[in-house]
Structures are given as structure tokens and as C-alpha cells.
Amino acid sequence: MGKNNVYCEPFCIQHGYDFEIHHVVYSEDSPYSCFMHFHEVHELIVFDSIEGTFFYSQGKSALCDQDLVFTPALETHDFELSSRNKSWYIIQFLPAILLAPGLEQAEDFFKYGMHLRLKPEDASAIQTLSKWLLDSYRESPSGNRSQALLRALLTWVAERATPLKPPHYDTLLKSSGYVKLEPVINLFRHNKSVELSLEQAAELCCVSPAYFSRLFKSVFRCNYSDYNVKHRLYSAARMLSQSQFSITEISYELNFSSPSHFISQFKKLFGVTPKKFKTTMLQRVAEP
């Protein structure tokens, strides 16, 4: 992608599959940005190399090499990463996977957003399992071997990983401010596009526009109008990763005034046109 590209996990689990796994690599000083966002599926990220901060429902915490982070479906999360080399495996899976026989411990474990750490020998094993799972997924996403490896990885993490506890993270998003914003946050959780002005959003939260604006920026580290546009564009990025959606369909589905306006906004944020982004994403998924 272009020099201003950002990354937002725009992968969508393909119809008929119950999980996806990808390996993401950024060289030193490669542009990276993210924003507080949601997924409709569970997400487990297994870091190889990383340095930065993870923002999630329990607050924020500093990331180290070989850490893991888990974010359940529809929970806010964000990353702020340094310019050093970084890479990770990203595994997104349907919540129903945890209902399978033999995963009772994993189902009980994977209920909340967590920053996880493993002993070195366990971290090495999880890295190996993630690589095997990726190789198997590329060969047969719904095959027995892929399903067995995914269950093994989830079980291993549930049994051996330890959630970080104070003083390693600071409580942030369970604040009263976050609770006040929940009526609007829930709209973003369940809709690809939210058509509310700042005044309407403030009224929904029963606060003044000025107070809502300050509160929103303190929680999401971005003003409301910018977040609203980014939310639609990140939704577009995920839709573009599914080849059945055309650029015109996406532009109107997400309430842009025209396809040309959508293309202009998308390129401004991602540094490439939607067409180029779509091509790049589909190639990334198809790469051996």
C-alpha cells in the first residue's frame, strides 16, 4: 500500500468458514495507525515482535515480544505501536467455536478482553502452533487438521497464559465516562455506519454537546466526527476484503454522498484507492 497506509485487520471470515488466520509483518518505520474499533467475531493476536500499547476494556498495557491479546466480539480495542519491526498472527473466529466439546475451559477463559503473557517455553509452542495453523488454513480452512490445530491453540492459551494484573495496566475504559457513552458506542458496535450528528449523539447520551465532545475524545483519543468517518472507512476496508462487494455498492451502503467521495475519503486515510486496497488484501489472503 502507499506510504500513508494504515492497518486495521480488515479481514472478514468467509462464508462457510468458522475462523481465519493471517500473518502480518511491518518492517522498521513502515507506517502504522489504528483506532478504537470493534469486530463481530472473537480475535486472538499472537505477537512475534512488538512494542507499543494495547488499549482495551480493562484499560491499557505495554506490549512486549511474544505477548498475546484477546478481544471478544463487539468489544472496543486499539493499538499504538512504535516504529520498530513488528509482526503477528491474527486469528479471528466465531464465538460458537468455543461451544465445541472439549473446549469448556477455553469457553470459560475467553470471556473478556485480555493482555496475556506466557512462559518462554509456552510462547515458543504457541508460535509454532500458529505457524502450523496458518499453513493448514491455507491448504484447507475447514479441514479436520485446521480445526484440531485451532482447538489445540485455544486450549493451550486457556491453560497456560496469564492475564496481566495491576500494576501492569491502568484502568481506563471502565470509567463512568465510558459508561455515559455506551448508547452511542453500542450504535457503532452494531452498525457499519452511524448517521448521528454530534448534537444528536450527545442527546442520546443525555449530556451537552460540549461535554460529550470532551468525553468522547478522552476515551477514544479522537474527536467524534473524525471517529465517525474512520468507522465507516474501516467498515469499508473489511467489506473490500470480501470480493462480492463492489466499490459503488460499498459507497452507498455506508452512506457516502457518491462513489467518488468515498474513493477520495478512503485514499486520504489509507493512502491508496479502494480498488488498490481490495487487490492488495485479496493477494495477501491468497499468498502461500
From TrEMBL:
Transcription as UniProt keyword: yes
Domain HTH araC/xylS-type, chain residue ranges per copy: 182-280
Gene3D superfamilies: Homeodomain-like
Alphabetized UniProt keyword annotations: DNA-binding, Transcription, Transcription regulation
Record bears the keyword DNA-binding: yes
Protein's name in the database: AraC-like DNA-binding protein
